[in-house]
Amino acid sequence: MAGxxxxxxxxxxxxxxxxxxxxxxxxxxxxxxxxxxxxNSAAMRDIYAQEGLRIDGxxxxxxxxxxxxxxxFAELTDVAEVGANLEAEKQINPVxxxxxxxxxxxDFTDDELEACAPGTLGRVLHDYLVRTGFDxxxxxxxxxxxxxxxxxxxxxxxxHDLEHIVTGFEPNPIAEYAQxxxxxxxxxxxxxxxxxxxxxxxxxxxxxxxxxxxxxxxPQCMEAFMDASRWGAEMGDKMTRPLLVxxxxxxxxxxxxxxxxxxxxQNVPPPGLWDWSxxxxxx
Length: 283
Known about the structure:
Shape: globular
Structural class: mainly alpha
Distance between the termini: 68 Å
Helix content: 55-70%
Number of strands: 0
């Protein structure tokens, strides 16, 4: 009879269309295994989910969690592959090759910066470090550059505070995201895709987890987050080169405006624009 005919299981048909026929559990294996080394990493999955889904609080500092992410990325880095991509990049990018050849760290001393004349980038940096209590060597303290890649890792952390000064993206949560997007855009403009991806892994991590966290838990900040993202992207797109690829010693005795002209940095945000975000995020 017609009433005895089983009804089509549309949900099952849709699922099998999208996922393929159901398979017995033993075909999956006992651990997660995918074509993504990042998804295969329990450490990366844990820190990525935690940073994207957690609520900020004084019990867990953002800096500590970033350190966990750095470690997870380091464990997944194929140094030989990175080295090969780096060498290939040097062959096609003479500006990058020349910067690496100088291998000049921004390891400025307090005395060196204080000796710079008032109004220079060096003196502005000195006053900034005194005011904020930041340390140019705040991360990777034990890393001594022995090759191009380790130099990049060291210099990237040592130049961070200089980047905030030159772009005008101040040290508050929303401006930090603007700075990250600025770096993402300028680095991808400057490098080939494979090497740009290697140089921006942590930027992508911080920005994408922040987008989820802000949207879920701090919707009052989401409009500013999106404005800052646009601001950073537009600034990075116009820049002559990434902030990373710079010998900052060349700019210490000039003004901040001199540096901005060299990078073609435009539309610097007004001071204090997003200071209020520090009362809501990363507390």
